[in-house]
């Protein structure tokens, strides 16, 4: 058989993409006589890891995670921290929340008003002037009001003196704690936004303000606190449902194992189970979205928009909007149509996928330890992620309190300069900018370490990406070595050596750490460029025009294509490294040439198989997701009673779905790597051997036959 023959006047594929492999009677699979490859990259990688460890230790010494957990007043003191004067004052109070609409909120990440720690939030409307009038009759009013003043405040100051000293707020209004901060207690009355049943109120300076102004000011702060708000509530939901999430993930693991075992015996039948299951799950989602959409049309729950509700918006309230369910329904319909169309147009190639899956099942059956390897990958990835998060938190909380000048009116030449709150009122800045404040801004310093903290954040992110991709590369190379050992055994399983996965893993670590680091470095650099692109897009969002948007979309698309192309080449390079033990560049070149010499065979192989495996992942995640949805929304009382006190039921639901998909991806990626390794070995087998008694093929006859048939059909087309 010679699939690559061409007329004499046409350059052959071999001439363009190197010479094909020749028969070697001594070749029996992955070579054992190896040497270290890409040593320079290995040394750089190890130095980066040592530097990463040193960075973590230095950040540990200088950082204080409490600074991220506790709100901080204008003097840089924590609210609610034990052993401090604010131990019983756990809530942050803003003197003049209306100032938080200033542009300096986003520029300096601080609201330009005095902030103090209090034990509770105000419960009524009251101005400082009104309090003075009541104080002459009943001094208890001052005791209530002084809770929201500095300790040096007195009840007999004039309004002018009060504004100069900034000891007390000019007015207080009904509030409630939100993220350990006092925020307006908004409510709705006949579809109108109110606070304390009022839509206007006195600001204490002789002016009248509306609730809309207060909402805008609160939203200004809310932009800085959204992430922490979500984080705290998500943490509460995780604390309530962690064991149910764990049960769901265990079920996903068992289900993935069952599917992998069944693939060995009933691959064809299981494929149709995948198809029907995925189509059915998506269909159920479409039906549910339609039901919710029609119910909200008939019985609308609110006439307010999300913008009207402001900081009171509960994320679950998105699901009370008709537009949300309509959008989800359209998305699911599009996905359903795509799946059905792909099934129709790929029906002739599904046979190839099924045969490859059966062959992969045999390989995994003879090397069962490969099914346990995803657990090791998961542990290594978890360690990398945890170390990155902890280091990032300690870096972000390193330093000493830094105070900066904040001008409420935004008209001060000294704004954003550092200052000392102890002597600020006696400085020239206070005289030049009446009303300016010296407020806590962030934690930092003037040492060399503090000056390079932004650089350390970039280094932390880059090494994290490098390590994540290295762990993935290590797993792919180890699995490729194990499956290549299986393929090149003439008599299976008798000729398969003991512990092929352990041997392949040891070779990858001992000889090819540099090559794996080289390949993962390329992916990490591309991912870093993508992150920089997204950062620039975020920073320039307000100034961008149509042309810049178009260029950004083109760049995103190009980087996405580049990343996926490099990942494909890397996987095949790792297979070559596992078999021949050469350096990364030589292995990538050999893999590319081999694939291009057999481009017709490549066109009918593993992409269809990946689609089938992707359906399997969707089926596992979708099945567990449907059960989790019914459980967390109290719709399975017969089986078990779900948790009733959740902030967002979608938190554990999405966690279970995402976790189930990742678990299924871990197990099915073993299959994907198995199929790709077998395919590369199959191409090598066709070039090395001719199927005769002296040079027999190592591939199974069903796989060889179906490839010959598909190749013939492709040529005829």
TrEMBL record:
Protein's UniProt keywords contain Cell membrane: yes
Catalyses which reaction(s): choline(out) + n H(+)(in) = choline(in) + n H(+)(out)
GO CC field: plasma membrane
Any one GO MF annotation of this record: choline transmembrane transporter activity
Residue ranges of the TM segments: 39-61, 242-262, 269-287, 325-346, 366-390, 463-488, 608-632, 653-673
Biological-process GO terms, alphabetical: phosphatidylcholine biosynthetic process
Keyword Amino-acid biosynthesis: no
Compartment list: Cell membrane
Keywords: Antiport, Cell membrane, Glycoprotein, Membrane, Transmembrane, Transmembrane helix, Transport
Disordered: region residues: 1-24
Main location, first listed in the record: membrane
Family: Belongs to the CTL (choline transporter-like) family.
Protein name (record): Choline transporter-like protein
């Amino acid at each position: 058989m010679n699939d690559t023959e061409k007329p004499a006047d046409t350059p052959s594929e071999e001439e363009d993409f190197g010479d094909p492999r020749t028969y070697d009677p001594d070749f029996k699979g992955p070579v054992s006589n190896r040497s270290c490859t890409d040593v320079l990259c290995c040394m750089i990688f190890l130095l980066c890891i040592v530097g990463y460890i040193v960075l973590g230790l230095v950040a540990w010494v200088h950082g204080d995670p409490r600074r991220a957990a506790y709100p901080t007043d204008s003097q840089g003191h924590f609210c609610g921290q034990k052993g401090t004067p604010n131990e019983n004052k756990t809530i942050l109070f803003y003197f003049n929340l209306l100032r938080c609409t200033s542009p300096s909120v986003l520029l300096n990440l601080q609201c330009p008003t005095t902030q103090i720690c209090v034990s509770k939030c105000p419960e009524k409307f009251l101005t400082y002037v009104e309090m003075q009038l009541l104080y002459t009759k009943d001094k208890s009013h001052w005791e209530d009001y002084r809770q929201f003043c500095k300790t040096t405040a007195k009840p007999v100051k004039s309004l002018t003196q009060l504004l100069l000293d900034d000891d007390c707020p000019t007015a207080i209004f009904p509030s409630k704690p939100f993220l350990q901060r006092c925020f307006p207690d908004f409510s709705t009355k006949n579809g109108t936004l109110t606070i304390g049943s009022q839509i206007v109120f006195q600001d204490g300076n002789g002016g009248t303000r509306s609730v809309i102004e207060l909402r805008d000011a609160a939203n200004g702060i809310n932009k800085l606190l959204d992430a922490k708000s979500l984080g705290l509530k998500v943490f509460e939901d995780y604390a309530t449902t962690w064991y149910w999430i764990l049960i769901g993930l265990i079920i996903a693991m068992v289900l993935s194992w069952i599917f992998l075992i069944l693939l060995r015996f009933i691959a064809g039948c299981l494929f149709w189970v995948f198809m029907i299951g995925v189509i059915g799950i998506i269909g159920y989602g479409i039906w549910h979205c339609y039901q919710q959409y029609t119910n909200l049309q008939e019985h609308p729950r609110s006439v307010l928009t999300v913008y009207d509700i402001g900081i009171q918006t509960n994320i679950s309230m998105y699901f009370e909007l008709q537009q949300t369910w309509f959008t989800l329904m359209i998305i699911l319909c599009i996905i359903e149509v795509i799946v059905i169309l792909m099934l129709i147009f790929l029906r002739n190639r599904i046979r190839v996928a099924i045969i490859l899956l059966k062959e992969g099942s045999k390989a995994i059956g003879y090397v069962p330890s490969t099914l346990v390897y995803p657990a090791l990958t998961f542990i290594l990835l978890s360690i990398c992620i945890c170390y990155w998060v902890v280091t990032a938190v300690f870096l972000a909380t390193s330093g000493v309190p830094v105070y900066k000048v904040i001008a409420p009116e935004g008209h001060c030449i000294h704004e954003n300069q550092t200052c000392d709150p102890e002597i600020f009122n006696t400085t020239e800045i206070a005289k030049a900018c009446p009303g300016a404040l010296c407020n806590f801004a962030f934690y930092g310093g003037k040492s060399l370490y503090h000056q390079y903290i932004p650089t350390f954040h970039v280094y932390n992110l880059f090494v994290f990406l490098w390590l994540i991709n290295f762990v993935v590369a290590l797993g792919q190379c180890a699995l490729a070595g194990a499956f290549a050992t299986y393929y090149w055994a003439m008599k299976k399983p008798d000729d398969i050596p003991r512990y092929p996965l352990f041997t392949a893993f040891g070779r990858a670590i001992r000889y090819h750490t540099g090559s794996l680091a080289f390949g993962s470095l390329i992916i990490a650099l591309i991912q870093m460029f993508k992150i920089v692109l997204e950062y620039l897009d975020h920073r320039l969002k307000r100034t961008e025009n149509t042309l810049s948007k178009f260029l950004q979309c083109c760049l995103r698309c190009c980087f996405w294509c580049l990343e996926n192309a490099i990942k494909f080449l890397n996987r095949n390079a790792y297979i070559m490294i596992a078999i021949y033990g050469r350096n990364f560049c030589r292995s990538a070149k050999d893999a590319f040439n081999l694939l291009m010499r057999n481009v017709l065979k490549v066109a009918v192989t593993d992409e269809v198989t990946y689609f089938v495996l992707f359906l399997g992942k969707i089926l596992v995640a979708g099945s567990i997701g449907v059960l989790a949805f019914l459980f967390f929304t109290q719709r399975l009382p017969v089986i078990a009673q779900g948790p009733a006190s959740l902030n967002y039921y979608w938190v554990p639901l999405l966690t279970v779905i995402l976790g189930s998909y990742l678990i299924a991806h871990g197990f099915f990626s073993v299959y994907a790597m198995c199929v790709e390794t077998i395919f590369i070995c199959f191409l090598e087998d066709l070039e090395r051997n001719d199927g005769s008694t002296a040079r027999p093929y190592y591939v199974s006859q069903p796989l060889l036959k179906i490839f010959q048939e598909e190749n013939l059909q492709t040529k005829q087309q």
